[in-house]
Amino acid sequence: MDYSKLLVEDIHSVTMATINNEGKPITRIIDLMLYDEEGIYFLTARGKSFYKELMDQEYISLTGLKGKVSFSLSGKVKNIGSHKLDEIFLKNTYMQSIYPEDTRKALDVFCLYEASGEYFDISDPAHIKRAPITINSKEHGTYYTITDRCIHCGKCETICPQRCIHNEVIDVSQCLHCGACLEICPVQAIEFKGVKKRRKEDVCLMNMCMIEDDKGHVLVQNKINDSYTGITFPGGHVEKEEIFKDAMIREVNEETGLTIKNPYLCGLYHWYKHSIHNIILVYKASEYEGFLHSSDEGDVYWIDKEDFLNQPLATGMEYVWDIVHKQHQECIMSNMGEHKRGDLF
User: Fold this and answer.
1) Are residues 291 and 230 both part of a single domain?
2) Is 304 exposed, middle or buried (0-12, 13-18, 19+ CB in 10 A)?
3) CB within 8 A of 101, min separation 6: which ones?
């Protein structure tokens, strides 16, 4: 079966997903214009946010539906400029009315050139059909399989809603992926294959710096924030494409009025919240210039170094103190009921 032909010519309009500038998924209806051995082609105008997302992420997911038949694909896209633009307008004549004459110059063509997904047909609900789809990809989709740990109890065959398990073999072309067999197996002999472990994660990068003078004082900040209050050190977020050291110098200047020199990276303080890996790069500095002033982040002032641990510290600052003083180089925080615990390394 020519799945690309079915997608482009029979379904044509699909739901396509990218990630917006807030890190949230967003979908649009996009027309698939052409296909060949290189991939599937679609287009968009350079002024649209969709264009910027495609250029930045170079990856999309799509779903197409016609009647009881659906297609899904996820994979890599690339901008090929105006290549194939005239061919697209000849084949899809309605585009000539949307972008008449030279106005088509605002468009760029994209090619979905490496992707994997599946074809799914429930026209006969009692005998569904499923098949992997690939475009220049070595991935072959996900599937359930029975391993040699099987003890031949027959429970998986009995519970399968599609009756697609026979003699300890799963017919993957009829499997619903419901997972009932995996849950009922008494010896965990059934495995779900083809799922890659995600190696990327959403990260929030921040910094913090302990500034000390030559009189035994450290500069602290009484943080005023709805979610984070107490005594801490100056710091903030690393901006996109900003060098870590420059970010630290900028944040200290914004919050204290001081310009630090030669900040030294002592270690890392990090935690997970709402699936985001929050990482603070912990610095210290003893060279600075300028005049001290506070900011809307909180008051800043000097205290005796020996009194720091006796202050009403913000959460985790005792671990940051440990890192700064070279006893450890890393701390990861975790929730323990209503309390937080730091593990030092």
Assistant:
1) yes
2) exposed
3) none
Residue 272's pLDDT is 87
Shared-domain flag, residues 234 and 336: yes
Q: Which domain holds residue 190?
A: 142-198
Q: Are residues 219 and 192 part of one domain?
A: no
User: Which two tokens mark 234?
Assistant: 């100056």
Q: What is the mean pLDDT of residues 72-87?
A: 95
Determine the 3-state secondary structure of 55 from DSSP: helix
Specify the range with the lowest mean pLDDT, choosing from 46-55, 164-173, 192-201, 272-281.
Answer: 192-201
Report residue 119: phi and psi, to 5°: -105, 135
What are the C-alpha distances in Å from 298 to residues 204, 238, 254, 255? 22, 19, 11, 8
CA distance 142 to 139: 9
Last residue of a domain, one of 176, 198, 220: 198
Torsion of Cα atoms, 68 then 15 then 131 then 35, to 10°: 110
Instruction: Please check whether residues 253 and 334 belong to one and the same domain.
Output: yes
Q: What is the DSSP string of 304-332?
A: EGGGGGGS-BPTTHHHHHHHHTTS-SEEE
Span 217-233, pLDDT tens digits:
999 999 987 678 899 99
pTM of the model: 0.59
Note whether 194 and 175 are within 8 A (CB).
no
pLDDT at 340: 74
DSSP secondary structure letters along 185-217:
-TT--EEEESPPPP---EEEEEEEEEEE-TTSE
Tens of pLDDT, residues 134-189: 999 877 678 899 999 999 999 999 999 999 999 999 999 999 999 999 999 999 99
Number of domains making up the chain: 3
Angle, alpha carbons 87-50-59 (nearest 5°): 85
